[in-house]
Amino acid sequence: MQPSDALLLIPLYITNAALLPIMRFRLLGFLHQADRPVSEALFGKNRTWLGLILIILGVSGGYFLLFNRWCFFPAAGFAAGVHASSLVKRRLRMKESQPFPFLDQLDFFAGAAIGLGMCGWHFADLALAAVLTFLAHLSANIAAYRIGIKDTWW
Q: Taking the model in full, what pTM does it have?
């Protein structure tokens, strides 16, 4: 993986990590009062309009700030990935927040990687990036669980 390829992961990781404390601790104040699930029947109660907006702003804004390049596709891919994984879990009749190894850790990454390709970026060593993403995501979840930010370790 080239250093420039690794930089492509930064907006994904920052946005994914920021969503938990923002949503859990209601850091956006009054916006949380108006927030609603996108579709509780399809995606569960945790996929909300505010979360969707934060994903789009965080990822798109991150790519613009880092690369001076506006590209909506990685943000759309990120959002599509997390919503698709929630849809799969609902269709399998899994409980809200029930673990689904690998899917839970790579949903946002897989969707965003497709979006990066649509913007013309080449993701060399995609398999290595996926492994690193999986390990980073799992480690961050375990750390958040141990310090009390998350209720589950996955």
A: 0.87
- Grade residue 2 by pLDDT with cuts at 50, 70 and 90: low
**Residue ranges per structural domain of the chain:** 3-146
C-alpha dihedral (137, 139, 141, 144), degrees to nearest 10: -140
Distance CA 105, CA 94 (A): 16
Confidence (pLDDT) at 97: 82
The answer to whether 146 and 139 have CB atoms below 8 angstroms apart is: no
Quick one: pLDDT band at residue 36, thresholds 50, 70, 90?
A: very high
CA-angle at 142, arms to 30 and 2, nearest 5°: 95
Query: For the chain, first and last CA: distance in Å?
Result: 27
Q: Is the pLDDT of residue 16 over 70?
A: yes
- What is the Cα–Cα distance from 138 to 154, expressed in whole angstroms? 7
Structure tokens at 148: 């009390």
